[in-house]
Amino acid sequence: MTARRTAAKIYRGTARSLRFLARCLRAGELVAVPTETVYGLAADALNARASAKIFRAKGRPTHDPLIVHIHSFAQLELLAKTNDAAKRLAKKFWPGALTLVLPKKKRVPAIVTAGLPSVAVRMPRHPLMRRLLRLCDRPLAAPSANPFGYVSPTTAEHVRAGLGKKIRFILDGGPAAVGLESTIVDLRDPRHPRLLRPGAISRRQIEDVLGIKLRSVPTRGGAKHAPLPAPGLLDRHYSPRTPLVLHKKMSRTRAAKSGLAEAWLFFARPAGLTGPNVFWLDARGDAYRAARRLFSRLRALDGRGFEKIHAEAAPAGDLAEAINDRLRRAAGLGQA
């Protein structure tokens, strides 16, 4: 008979806990970690066996590569072949919510990069994650700390709810400040940069630094496809188990007449409309607060027993592309 694993333990960010968790990571263990974007499931990125544990714990297909987190520019040079465009973006936005895809160096295991000759690298801003990275003195591969395809976690409790029986250690760094996964830019060919995944660092901000327009990539389908250049490109991702329907603009009249079995998630608080099935991302429609709450709202609605979730797209603005990308994928619509 196989012994049942106890639920993961949540550790506060004390000096003692950080030293202990750093030792765990160096020994090849998995640790769920806070970042400013979402919580990640971390392993030593230079240890192929440790990184493989991430895929098993999440149920993640191996064609979907991992993002490698670093604490210094020296580590970037150890992992990837850089170029002037990458250096300019890193200088402007690191530490922060930007991931760069670059040609990889041999020391990066194939399991981390889905066998591709490129690697996705980011320098996170969260202070506990940065301290942990320094204590480990190793780059950490860390996709979102949730079952593959489900809504990303933005708190330690979200991680425990999803992976608590498959991992042992969770570092609690409070609610994620951004709430959306990082922006990913493909700079393998710096003359033709591509936006692979929108995030809090907007297309406009990146184009202003590079002085060149970013191309977008079409969505990629299911698990039988060839390796992806970066995570977040599948047509269905970040999805609640409850079916989600995305609307460019939602009708208050239709919401008021609908049955209580359907939830209505407005972007801003709908004037004159209330009810046990009416929700919103931010009362005043602030895009940054809406982004921070998006995944926690979807998780909460998913646990309420609704038959369907109606969600309203974000209006035009720097964060709209990122929020609507997540909502499209949550609805299984992908990115055109």
Strand and helix map with partners:
Layout (H helix, E strand, L loop, with lengths): L8 E3 L3 H12 L4 E3 L6 E5 L3 H11 L8 E3 L3 H7 L4 H10 L4 E6 L14 E5 L4 H10 L3 E2 L14 H8 L5 E3 L11 E4 L7 E4 L5 H8 L4 E2 L27 E4 L4 H6 L4 E7 L9 E5 L4 H16 L5 E5 L7 H11 L6
Parallel strand pairs: 1-8, 4-6, 5-9, 10-11, 12-15, 13-14, 13-15
Antiparallel strand pairs: 2-3, 3-7, 4-7, 5-6, 9-10
Helix pairs in contact: 1-5
* Strand line-up of the largest beta sheet: 2-3-7-4-6-5-9-10-11
Q: Count of helices? A: 10
Order of helices and strands: EHEEHEHHEEHEHEEEHEEHEEHEH
Reported for the largest beta sheet, the result is: 9 strands, mixed
Going by helix content, strand content and strand pairing, the class is alpha/beta
Number of strands: 15
**Could you name the CATH topology of the largest domain?**
DHBP synthase
CATH superfamily of the largest domain: DHBP synthase
Overall tally of domains: 2
Please mark out the parts with pLDDT under 50 across 5 or more consecutive residues, or reply none: none
Q: How far apart lie the N and C ends?
A: 49 Å
**CATH class group of the largest domain:** Alpha Beta
Per CATH, which architecture of the largest domain?
Alpha-Beta Complex
Query: Approximately what portion of the residues adopt beta-strand conformation?
Result: 15-25%
What would the average pLDDT be, to the nearest integer?
93
User: Helical content, roughly?
Assistant: 25-40%
Shape descriptor reads globular
* Cα radius of gyration in angstroms: 20 Å
